[in-house]
Design a protein that fits this description.
4-stranded antiparallel beta sheet, globular, 11 strands, 7-stranded mixed beta sheet, 0% helix
C-alpha cells in the first residue's frame, strides 16, 4: 500500500530547468525523512539531496543548482533543478526513510528519467 510516485522528468537543454515531484501515500509522511537519488546507466545510485531533521545535504555536483523541498500537507517532496548539465542525465528516484532508525528499510519510487541534451 506504500507508494512513492515520481513525475516531472523529461528532455531539457543544457542550462535549462526542471522540477521533479514525488507523491507519497500509505505512510505517515510528516515523520519520514526524504531524499532524491539518481542513477545513470552502468553506474551506482548516488545521493543528490537529502532532507532530515539533522539538516539538508546536497551532493557537491549539484550544490547551488538544485533545491529540495517538501509540503507535508500534500504529502509531496520536490526537487528544483536549475542550470542543468549533460552529466545530470539519469533516472531520479524519490526515497522515504527514517534517519534516526538506521537499520530499517527505506521506501523507493520507480524513478523518472531526466535527459539533458541539445
Amino acid at each position: 500500500q506504500v507508494q512513492l510516485v515520481e513525475s516531472g522528468g523529461g528532455l531539457v537543454q543544457p542550462g535549462g530547468s526542471l522540477t521533479l515531484s514525488c507523491a507519497a501515500s500509505g505512510i505517515m509522511f510528516s515523520i519520514y525523512d526524504m531524499g532524491w537519488y539518481r542513477q545513470a546507466p552502468g553506474k551506482q545510485r548516488d545521493m543528490v539531496a537529502v532532507m532530515t531533521s539533522a539538516g539538508t545535504i546536497y551532493a557537491d555536483s549539484v550544490k547551488g543548482r538544485f533545491s529540495i523541498s517538501r509540503d507535508n500537507a500534500k504529502n509531496m517532496v520536490y526537487l528544483q533543478m536549475n542550470s542543468l548539465k549533460p552529466e545530470d542525465t539519469a533516472v531520479y528516484y524519490c526515497k522515504a526513510f527514517r534517519a534516526r532508525f538506521k537499520y530499517t528499510s527505506p521506501y523507493w519510487g520507480q524513478g523518472t528519467q531526466v535527459t539533458v541534451s541539445s
